[in-house]
Amino acid sequence: MGFFDKIKQGLAKTKQSMTVSMNNMFTSFTGENEDFYEELEETLILADAGVETSEKAVEGLRTLVKQRGLRGGEQVRDAFTEVMTGLLDVGDKRLKLGTKPSIILMVGVNGVGKTTTIGKLAAKMTAEGKKVLLVAGDTFRAAAGEQLSIWADRALADIVRHEEGSDPASVVFDGIAAAKARGADVIIVDTAGRLHNKANLMNELNKITRIITRELPDADRETLLVLDATTGQNGLIQAKQFKETADISGIVLTKLDGTAKGGIVFAIADELQLPVKYIGVGEGVDDLMPFQPKEFAEALLQQ
Ligand SMILES: Nc1nc2c(ncn2[C@@H]2O[C@H](COP(=O)(O)OP(=O)(O)OP(=O)(O)O)[C@@H](O)[C@H]2O)c(=O)[nH]1
Ligand SMILES: [Mg+2]
Hints:
The chain is of the alpha/beta class. Helix 7 (144-155) links the parallel strand 2 and strand 3 (158-160). Helices cover 53% and strands 14% of the residues.
């Protein structure tokens, strides 16, 4: 399956609920028509694109329709796709990992897909010929290290792991030392999503961040916040909390295949002004796609 078809398949539920009703709207578009714009905004909000972002989208379309004197439904659909692409086009979508080693810190609340995303990302990188080392920084949950080990095997990556309950910052310290000694290109750090409380979680992330800054002062670093698309607006709230503590460089939005409310991508990019760098469209190793605004908007909005 091609790249584009795979995204389309991953978005099937959202397409079914959102795009199908938009198709009717575009088909019956007759120029100046308030109902059209209202209905479009409602459909976006229902797909979790958020009130502000949906308003912005509709205003953007209204402007283009006027400017260009658009009449036909397909022209309007194309203009809408253009507006929606613009909303998604925030910041640098590519990972900046130029130094050797460079480091990725994966953060997010429990169950969003951090460990799975690390496995998928590691597999992509080793396939490109990079030497990847995973660090099992989630020492809180009993099965976490084992889960990461399985992914390390599958992705042909190295792993540094301590026993359950040990200090995550010290695992990260050892991981960095091992990466230097073994000449790894990329270090990917898994972190716990669940601790006794939120303050603990944020403190721990701070500790890990300090170790990285001390041990790898000049390395390129990506701090990726993983959000679960099926949690909708909750994900946005989580993101705002993480943004206060960690210097988030981008978002990975997982489980788009599992929701009819994929419009959340627009709210995330637009409200947080953080680039979505990858999307997860399934549980398999190949189900992580680099995020490209234009392809995404087309896969979602074109028939
Ligand atoms: N359908 C689907 N499932 C996914 C995707 N990404 C992850 N999952 C599933 O989500 C579940 C949780 O994933 P994990 O990677 O363990 O999540 P985590 O953030 O590491 O969780 P904690 O370690 O408990 O904080 C697993 O069953 C994954 O297979 C995705 O893109 N699509
Ligand atoms: Mg995990």
